Amino acid sequence: MLRDKFREFSRDTSSIGQERVDGVNGLADALIAAGHSENATVAEWKDGLNEAWADLLELIDTRSQMLAASYELHRFYHDARETLAQSTTHRGTARHGAAWRSLTSVRPQVRQVQEDAARLEKAYAGEKAADIRRHEQAVSEAWAELRGSSQGRRRLLLDTVDKFRFLRAVRDLLLWMDGVRLQIEGQERPR
């Protein structure tokens, strides 16, 4: 955006400036052709003006090239940071997805243990029944803890994705505001 504004500024400055320089050169040529008493001074001033204009055009071109190079470098760093952040987040999300699929494959096993425990508790009495109940409780508690931690991780990963979206929006807005500020501060004041 800033680069486009500078291009527009450069184009407008070159166009308007060239018209003005051409106008002054025309006046100088008319004065010289009319045999003005200060022909030498007018010609000297005309040459000085044309040299200054060529220097200014070169400066504008150099600034344009520097801005383009700086913009490309900044864009590369921005894209690299964003890609790295997204890759890390998505890799975590993908790992979480694989873990969640693995969890869903464990769910039937947990149900089977619970059903077997209920059936076996009826078949056994005393200490064996209590031992079956303890094992079933340990499996059920581990399953509940695993589901809870998995859901917590999923929420954390989704929050992280939202955070990166927010930070990217903030960064883009700050870059835009910096561009506007630089454009405002960079405007030359009239003399």
Characteristic key phrases:
SPTN2 protein, Spectrin/alpha-actinin, 3 helices, mainly alpha, Methane Monooxygenase Hydroxylase, Chain G, domain 1, Spectrin_repeat, 191 residues, rod-shaped
Please tell me about this protein's structure.
This is SPTN2 protein. It holds the Pfam family Spectrin. GO terms for molecular function: actin binding. Keywords: Actin-binding, Repeat. By secondary structure, the chain is an all-alpha fold. The protein has one domain: Methane Monooxygenase Hydroxylase, Chain G, domain 1 (Up-down Bundle). Helix content is about 95%, strand content about 0%. Helix 1 (about 1-35) runs antiparallel to helix 2 (about 40-125) and helix 2 packs antiparallel against helix 3. Residues about 90-95 have low confidence and may be disordered.
Euclidean distance between termini CA atoms: 28 Å
Number of strands: 0
Task: Describe the largest sheet.
Answer: none
CATH class category label = Mainly Alpha
Summing up helix and strand content along with how strands pair, one would put the structural category as mainly alpha
Count of helical segments? 3
CATH architecture: Up-down Bundle
GO molecular function: actin binding
Protein name: SPTN2 protein
Pfam family, one: Spectrin
Keywords: Actin-binding, Repeat
